[in-house]
Specification:
alpha/beta, Peroxisomal Thiolase, Chain A, domain 1, four-stranded mixed sheet, 11 helices, 12 strands, binds oxa(dethia)-CoA
Length: 322
């Protein structure tokens, strides 16, 4: 994982908008987040996380034969950010696939990597979730509902061919429902508008993310348990207690506590670190998983469930033996 050095506390935000540490902690659990300094982008964070992931996998960058880059905050409109990571890693000609599934981006990325590896198309797939939100947030009271939630950061994993059934991806399940796509989105700049961005749109703050928070919350606490149950069923897992560690997307600590309670997962079998990093969308699961591994909460061979829900709306789960 890689996060920027700059720590932004709730009190720092309260100096710039009408909010408070109490409100943010009570509703979301977030205490601080990391925001980039000028000149630091998603590709740089991703490259840092990727180098560490590749090294820990006992590989070298040249062993990677596909990069999957999940983000909702690409460094530039085009090309996709994956090619910039490829360049920073000193790689040439391997394919780079950018995907746009927001908070579920990492789960979608894992499902693509798993499928490619199963077909034998690729051997070592680098799956990255990386985000720089801070440069696109409304740092005023008008944007406070969204702005206090998001942080910058990157996480990466290498998915390779399993050599035995004790360390492998067991299942991936991914879903989407576009019927309420606008309850969490950033509308501008957009190719559907002429011009793509205008002074009027900016005056209406339409280039900032907008969210119907309560709706999103309700969908999250419904879809995440469904995705977990779907994975359990597919793998013949009868009891939730068979899962050693649940790593949920970090959107709101209250969401994750509610989900854990709904499925009967004891607190010691799930890990959250939104308190320190806020919601880093596609990066949150690999960052959280990395931390759980570092803390010894995930050990080799453990049954791990990754689960996410996010804009789109999108949701899904990955079950794996680490
Ligand atoms: O990754 C997936 C994406 N996001 C999510 O999953 C987020 C899902 N939603 C949520 O986590 C919650 O809806 C929020 C934490 C965003 C908001 O909590 P809420 O309990 O749903 O609050 P609310 O939006 O209904 O707002 C309650 C009040 C409002 O004031 P009034 O109308 O009651 O006077 C807001 O204006 O809190 C106000 N408010 C704030 N006050 C202080 C909204 N944002 C803030 C803020 N600081 N940052």
């Amino acid at each position: 994982m890689a996060v920027p050095n700059r720590v932004v506390t709730n009190d720092d935000l309260a100096k710039q908008m009408e909010t408070s540490n109490e409100w943010i902690v009570e509703r979301t659990g977030i205490e601080q987040r990391r925001w980039v300094e000028p000149g630091e982008g998603g590709a740089e964070l991703a490259a840092k996380a990727s180098k560490e992931a590749i090294e820990r996998a006992g590989l070298q960058p040249k062993d990677i034969d596909l990069i999957i880059y999940a983000t909702l905050s690409p460094d530039v409109n085009f090309p996709g950010t994956g090619v910039f990571v490829q360049r920073l890693l000193g790689l040439k000609e391997i394919p780079c696939l950018d995907i746009r599934q927001q908070c579920t981006g990492f789960i979608y990325g894992m499902s693509i990597a798993d499928a490619y590896i199963r077909t034998g198309s690729f051997k070592n797939v680098l799956v990255i979730g990386s985000e720089v939100h801070s440069t696109g947030l409304d740092i005023s009271t008008a944007g406070r509902d969204v702005t206090v939630l998001f942080g910058d950061g990157a996480g990466a994993v290498v998915v390779g061919r399993a050599t035995d059934d004790r360390h492998m991806v067991l299942s991936t399940h991914i879903h989407a429902d576009g019927s309420e796509a606008e309850i969490l989105w950033t509308e501008y700049p957009a190719s559907r508008h002429h011009p793509r961005i205008s002074a009027e749109a900016m005056a209406e703050r339409k280039h900032y993310p907008a969210m119907k928070g309560k709706n999103v919350f309700k969908h999250a606490v419904t879809r995440m348990p469904q995705a977990i149950m779907e994975g359990m069923q597919a793998n013949g897992i009868k009891s939730i207690l068979e899962i050693d560690m649940l790593i949920p997307h970090q959107a709101n600590l209250r969401i994750n506590q509610m989900v854990a309670q709904m499925i009967g997962m004891p607190p010691e079998k799930t890990h959250n670190n939104i308190q320190k990093y806020g919601n880093t969308t596609a990066a949150s699961i690999p960052i959280c998983m990395h931390e759980a591994i570092e803390l010894g909460k995930i050990k080799p061979g453990d049954l791990v469930c990754l689960v996410a829900f996010g804009a789109g709306l999108t949701w899904g789960s990955v079950f794996l033996r680490y």
